[in-house]
Amino acid sequence: MPQIPEKIHELTVGQLSARSGAAVSALHFYEAKGLISSRRTTGNQRRYGRDTLRRVAFVRAAQRVGIPLATIRQALAQLPEERTPTNEDWARLSGAWRTELDERIKQLGRLRDHLTDCIGCGCLSLETCVLSNPDDAFGERMAGSRLLPVRNPAPDGDEA
To answer: What's the predicted TM-score (pTM) here?
Structure first.
């Protein structure tokens, strides 16, 4: 991994990509979504502050655990500008996600525990299915993975 001399306070997009492991296109995407920012040179080239390395690492780690980009953006907006966030800053932000992550873990546990039943059934319409249709109204009337067409009454009152 290339080292950045301490006297360099800004990085090109290529340097940021090489140091962070994120593709240049991902960095442009993060910037478009407001997750990171850059300044433009007189030649319209992007320059990123060194603190952007930690922000990119934070974004990538948060994405790996399934945190939505909008939530990541809100968290990053709470961080100070122009300085590298401290361990306390990161702990405060990640602590706020603990409840959400605990709920996701619980949902994944339910998925793991019930996946065999649903795949074995094939209909995903079990009365006890907690994955796709926990309040399955159709399962009370019929079994199977397809819905029957609703019959319209014929003009004489009989069903068509």
So the answer is: 0.62
98-147 pLDDT tens trace:
888 888 888 888 778 777 665 655 555 545 555 555 555 556 666 655 55
User: Tokens for 85?
Assistant: 């966030």
DSSP for 75-107, please give it: HHHTSPTTSPPPHHHHHHHHHHTHHHHHHHHHH
Residue 147 DSSP code: P
**Alpha-carbon dihedral 102, 64, 113, 136, rounded to 10 degrees:** 80
Composition of the chain by helix, strand, coil, percent to 5:
50, 5, 45
Distance CA 65, CA 84 (A): 23
